[in-house]
Design goal:
The complex is a heterodimer. By secondary structure, chain A is mostly helical. In chain A, 47% of the residues lie in helices and 1% in strands. By secondary structure, chain B is of the alpha/beta class. In chain B, helix 4 packs across helix 12. Chains A and B meet through helix 1, strand 1, helix 5, helix 6 and helix 7 of A and helix 2, strand 5, helix 9 and helix 10 of B. Chain A: It comes from Komagataeibacter swingsii.
């Protein structure tokens, strides 16, 4: 399946040494791009389930390196970096994730006799929707409010990890880091030369050439 | 090697970071712990910052404590939403009630300068009637303050923060010209303007605390649009680059990475110092007076955590109202798509505003609201989209592709004070062993009526200018207030008009928590004005001998 590429040729990382990136930004983005691709907090089983869930929450095209979403969740759990608040109906995030991932496994085995990551994508989506709406069976959920876990963590954490990655910025045409240069042209349909051009249908080749000059 | 301000205090050994020069330092006076200083100020945000500067400038010995780091914006701030969550208070707080609050980004800071380091810089005055909303408008509670006096302090705050605003502001009584010219508006802000005009409402450039021309060591704003995760150029006139440097120059000390866990009270029932955690150990700082400026969660938490045998329900709490009447502001939005290439992330996020419904009383609910243009960055935007529209999977990625065509309007609305919206202590403890806050919040009928009214108005405004694919973000809230309200007597309030607690004469509370009502505008300028007034009142009381009573 090929999907429309709205900003062909645009790569926000090209601006790494431009006046749009300061040293703090380079330091942070190097760490983000260098995230270890294997679990350091979660168990192997939890990790496999998480990778499969991430693939459904943010399905990624095959023609580019994937954003390692599970790695960012694992990193967040390892550091126990929290959001500053917790719904009183949920346990702390590490426990919430561990209970939740285990419960996904139990549900998958009960419904299909297989691990979650071995289900078809349709089966995975169906199970995710059940959890999203709180239609769950397994006692494995215990006191964990499944719907709340889905919105706060499954959606909240995974989606935030994706849109914090330069690959997603290329996809949506976000200018990305912008200090100290900032922007000059503030009005509609005005583009600074360090912002990408959007391609209409059939314009991909020409726009791709233009976007390769964005820096 | 990068010195990490989150692990090691920077304001030590007689110097504090010079926020304007990479690697630079400014001299800082230091006070011995055992000798009582005139004032300890807990919190260095919109309340604490002006107090530190003004009290130090009047010759008092003052120490400002902050639980957070002393950032150097030029060196520490990346253009990045995720890593810049280092500016938010991310220690756990429990939230419950019918409408649990989201904490963190929108409503709390943990840094020298407080949440002004990451605020949207919107600097608005209250409508005068809000200071007497019970008497004049029939809801909430009156403030024990005269709006004309506040008008004077607003003007001073606007000068101190070099607010960039329009030549004449359309609403409210006359005010002086804003010190700096208004910022150029972006495409997203123009949509608000055209939508307001289509409805026959007035609009204005939003008065903002980011400079539109150089000011001292602050360069003109470069419109990078990462304001809400910290300004990396120092154009933003946060406390960190305004009142705090003034305070240091006048002889104040700042103790960064210093979490105050308890206010000590002597045998006479007066505050005598603070127990604080810094560099891995607990310390005690003696003080003749204590001012709490930790905002609507940490202020009541500290007062409650400071309970003694004599003050069993916490300090300053004979009324039982510490932690009560918590208010947030409704922050609902309507978003949509335009054919134009808008790129709403360019420039400060809220460049235009209409306060129409703050000043018009022909409505079937109490309180007011404004709405402003929007320009969220991708992480925040994806969270709004995915939670409000229940989007994930391919559908979410598809809709996110419209990022550069997106526009939106977001309200800041006045929620009314209710006794049962409150901050209490939970059983869980934090990294210092202190009980964490439980924040309980439920919307009431008036709040819901206002939200629906605002959503309808904002939607109509966008429809009138041809924005399509409209949808509503129904669940967002932002700024906080209440929990240590000021009032006319000790039975129905925690502090008096001077922000001085009724129970303990040398204990002040000066931040958003003293607000009896929260108004329909962002609170920071009012907090700043209130702090400037409080500093003046303290000086007057010291001169007349009232301080010793």
């Amino acid at each position: 399946m090929t999907e429309r590429n709205r900003y062909p040729g645009y790569d926000v990382l090209v601006k790494r040494h431009s006046p749009s990136w300061n040293e703090a930004t380079r330091r942070v983005m190097d760490a983000r791009l260098g995230v270890p691709r294997e679990p350091r907090f979660l168990s192997r089983i939890e990790w496999d389930t998480l990778v499969a869930i991430c693939d459904r929450i943010i399905p990624q095209p095959k023609n580019r390196p994937p954003v390692p979403l599970a790695a960012y969740i694992d990193q967040k759990l390892k550091a126990d970096a929290r959001n500053g608040f917790r719904n009183a109906a949920l346990p702390p995030q590490r426990a919430a994730w561990q209970i939740g991932l285990a419960a996904f496994e139990v549900e998958a085995h009960q419904l299909h006799g297989k691990a979650f990551h071995h289900l078809t994508t349709a089966q995975q989506d169906d199970l995710l929707r059940r959890v999203e709406s709180g239609r769950i069976d397994a006692p494995a959920w215990g006191d964990l409010d499944a719907a709340l876990f889905f919105s706060e963590h499954i959606m909240g954490d995974i989606i935030a990890a994706y849109y914090a990655h330069p690959t997603s910025w290329n996809e949506i045409g976000f200018g990305g880091p912008a200090s100290p240069r900032g922007y000059v042209r503030m009005r509609n349909n005005r583009r600074d030369p360090w912002e990408p051009v959007e391609a209409g249908p059939g314009e991909e080749a020409r726009v791709g050439r233009e976007n390769r000059r964005v820096r | 090697m990068y010195d990490n301000p989150l692990t090691t205090p920077r304001a030590t050994h007689g110097r504090a970071p010079d926020v304007f020069h990479p690697g630079g330092w400014v001299p800082m006076r230091e006070y011995p712990q055992r000798e009582a200083v005139d004032f300890v100020v807990i919190g260095t945000g919109a309340g604490g910052g002006p107090l530190l500067a003004r009290l130090a400038e009047r010759g008092y010995s003052v120490i400002g404590f902050d639980a957070g780091p002393y950032f150097r914006p030029l060196e520490d701030f990346a253009s990045d939403e995720t890593s810049q969550s280092q500016l938010f208070w991310t220690d756990e707080r429990l939230v419950d009630g019918a409408n649990p609050l989201k904490m963190g980004a929108n409503n709390s800071g943990r840094a020298v300068g407080g949440s002004t380091v990451h605020y949207a810089m919107v600097s608005l005055r209250f409508r005068p009637e809000w200071f007497r909303s019970r008497t004049l408008l029939g809801y909430g509670a009156d403030w024990p303050l005269d709006w004309r006096e506040m008008w004077h302090y607003y003007a001073r705050a606007e000068r101190d923060l070099a607010i960039a605003g329009p030549v004449s502001y359309p609403w409210g009584p006359k005010r002086p010209r804003y010190p700096y010219r208004a910022h150029e508006i972006n495409g997203a802000a123009e949509v608000l303007a055209r939508g307001a005009e289509a409805m026959g409402y007035q609009w204005s450039e939003t008065p903002l605390a980011t400079v539109s021309a150089p000011r001292g060591d602050s360069p003109s704003c470069v419109y990078r649009g990462f304001c809400r995760v910290g300004c990396a150029t120092n154009a933003k006139q946060s406390q960190l680059v305004t009142y705090i440097p003034r305070a240091l120059a006048a002889g104040a000390e700042i103790r960064d990475m210093a979490m105050v866990g308890r206010i000590a009270v002597d045998a006479a029932g007066r505050a005598c110092g603070v127990h604080y955690h810094r560099n891995g150990a607990w310390h005690f700082q003696a003080a003749r007076n204590v001012i709490v400026a930790g905002y609507a969660i940490e202020t009541p938490r500290l007062l409650l955590n400071s309970a003694t045998d004599r003050f069993r329900n916490g300090l300053a709490n004979s009324s039982g109202l510490v932690g009560r009447y918590l208010m947030t502001q409704s922050n609902q939005a309507v978003y949509g798509v335009m054919d134009d290439m808008v790129r709403w992330n360019k420039g400060p996020p809220s460049l235009t505003i209409t306060e129409h419904w703050n000043y018009n009383d022909r409505k079937d609910f109490h309180g007011g609201y404004c709405w402003m243009a929007q320009g969220p960055l991708p992480v925040e935007w994806s969270a709004a989209m995915s939670t409000s529209r229940r989007l994930w999977g391919a559908a979410l990625r598809e809709k996110m592709g419209d990022y550069n065509h997106q526009v939106g309007l977001k309200m800041v609305g006045e929620m009314l004070p209710h006794l049962d919206n409150r901050v209490t202590l939970a059983d869980e403890t934090d990294r210092y062993g202190l009980p964490i806050a439980r924040v309980t919040y439920s919307w009431h009928d008036n709040d819901k009526a206002m939200i629906q009214h605002a959503l309808g108005e904002m939607q109509r405004s966008l429809e009138l200018v041809g924005v399509r694919d409209l949808w509503r973000q129904e669940n967002d809230t932002n700024h906080l207030a209440g929990t240590a309200r000021m009032g006319f007597d000790r039975e129905t309030s925690v502090v008096d008009a001077d922000c001085r607690s009724w129970d303990i004469p040398n204990l002040w509370i000066c931040d958003g928590s003293v607000f009896p009502t929260t108004g329909g505008v962002n609170p920071s300028l009012t907090i700043t004005a209130l702090a400037l007034r409080t500093a003046d009142r303290i000086c007057v009381q010291a001169r007349t001998g009232e301080m010793r009573k």
